[in-house]
Amino acid sequence: MAIVVVMLAVYEGCTPKEAVVSVPPIASFDLIQDHILTPTCATSACHASEQTSTFAQHGLVLAKGKAYEYLVNKDPKNANARTDKLKLVTPYFSLQSLFYHKLVWGENANHHGGLSYGNPMPLNGKALYKGQIEFVRRWIEAGAPRTGSIVDTTLLNDKTPSF
To answer: Which of 88, 85, 83, 91 minimizes the C-alpha distance to 101?
Structure first.
């Protein structure tokens, strides 16, 4: 009997263990890209490329691989936003970021101070959910980094209508 116990112990020690693979969390900006920009903004009629018919008006491409460079610390084309010294995304300051202002619709948009920054986005007639907007706000307030998971991803599950 003792031999069987020893054999089992030896056998157990020789079996390969499952490798523990650590998958890094998805970067917060990549989640914004995948859950917000690609499906609602980077469409053929809007912000897909420099070749869209409206590019001259807004000068903004939100397609994967280009969006970050077009957004962070960039001057907007909107005259009121430029007058107010907004950037498209001003790291650490959501209220100084036109991108954030454009996502907040209707009565919720009184943080604009009565100024018009153009049409709310996305233009498809459906406002983003509260969780999506809050995710963007927190990403900006955390410095709008390109890499790193810095915002609670459960916000993206909040499907509460914002408007």
So the answer is: 88
87, with CB counted inside 10 A (0-12, 13-18, 19+), is buried
40 Cβ contact list (under 8 Å, min separation 6): 121, 122, 124, 126, 128
Q: What is the pTM of this model?
A: 0.83
d(CA 63, CA 108): 27
What digits encode the pLDDT tens for the residues 84-94? 999 999 999 99
Is 89 within a domain? yes
CA atoms of 82 and 139, how far apart (whole Å): 22
Give the pLDDT score at 3: 47
Residue 117 lies in domain: 26-157
Domains identified in the chain, total number: 1
In a domain, residue 16? The reply is: no
| Residue 18 is assigned to a structural domain of this protein | no
pLDDT digits (tens, 9 = 90+) for 106-131: 765 555 566 788 888 998 778 999 99
- Does residue 145 fall inside a structural domain? yes
* pLDDT, position 123: 86
